[in-house]
Design goal:
Blueprint lengths: L4 E5 L9 E5 L7 H18 L3 H17 L9
Length: about 80
């Protein structure tokens, strides 16, 4: 079973996930703003759980594939 936090940046997620975090963006936000916010979030998660992404990516992609109804691979081909 997948449990976790669904983070949406610049979008209010009302579709899926029990635990949600929506991060608003200013009206003039561009790709660089989105990228900076994303890296900031991921960096803070990795500080708290140093090996989370490395050690759990395969099991996460298997579970999240079921959530989205399509195969999501841990390595982009």
């Amino acid at each position: 079973m997948i449990t976790g936090l669904f983070i949406s940046i610049g979008y209010q997620n009302n579709l899926f996930g029990k635990h949600k975090l929506s991060i608003p963006l200013p009206p003039d936000a561009d790709f660089a703003t989105l990228k900076a916010v994303g890296y900031f979030i991921i960096g803070n998660i990795q500080k708290q759980h140093p090996s989370y992404f490395k050690n759990n990516i395969e099991s996460y992609t298997k579970g999240i594939s079921k959530v989205f109804g399509q195969e999501i691979k841990p390595i982009v081909e």
